[in-house]
Amino acid sequence: MKNPGTVIITGASKGIGKTMAIGFALHGYNVVINYNKSENNARKLSNKLLQKNLSVKLYRADVAKREEVDSLVDFCVKQFKGIDILINNAGISQSILFTDIKEHDWDEMIKVNLKGVFNCTQSVLSYMLPRKKGKIINVSSVWGIVGASCEVHYSAAKAGVIGFTKALAKELGPSNIQVNCIAPGVVRTEMLDLFSAEELNDLRTSIPLLRLGRPKDIAVCALFLASKKADYLTGQVISPNGGFVI
């Protein structure tokens, strides 16, 4: 299988990021699996893929800390002689009334979900811009499009990712670097653990396709955006959400 390139996936130890890492590795990419706190999950994933003789490397970095991000990117370039695709997937969530949000909650949400995108993107561009080639895929949320009650700080951060994507796509277009965004709907990951079975059922029945999203639904979208088939797409927000938001 011809190697189509090298990808860094942030927050790749579980959920959507884990499924993306598996998908990209199976499609022949060199994959740098980034994690921060979930080391056991990340190592299990890495070992599983290495047993299949797939090209993966593991690296711990907190995307909110620029020095750690720069080290992550340098590691990728040293291991694989370059970086072709960045997937800004790392994120946190919290369900809480706006009036109960503490300053620390707000700062942490923005730091991980939005500043992390800034850090990782600016760092990889030091390698992409001289080559005039690269793809950046940002993971936002349907709540970044329409907003979610009791998730104001999360919605604000994810809306920021959408604005970031559109503005940067215009700036990097002349350098042949595509910047796109995936805004998943309600996807069955650990982030849904804070919802009750009744709440999840209410969400499911409000989706025209009558099912919650699967991480695979998002991973196939990322694979498309990373491929040559998407070379003329930039600044776009694609929302795999089963018709939940149209």
Mind explaining what this structure looks like?
- By secondary structure, the chain is of the alpha/beta class.
- It has one domain (6-238): NAD(P)-binding Rossmann-like Domain (Rossmann fold, 3-Layer(aba) Sandwich).
- Helix content is 47%, strand content 13%.
- A 7-stranded parallel β-sheet has the order 3-2-1-4-5-6-7, with helices on both faces.
- Helix 4 packs parallel to helix 6 (152-172).
- The longest helix is centred in the middle third of the chain and has 29 residues, at 103-131.
- The radius of gyration is 17 Å and the shape is globular.
- The protein starts with 5 loop residues before the first strand and ends in an 8-residue tail after the last strand.
- The model has no long low-confidence stretch (mean pLDDT 97).
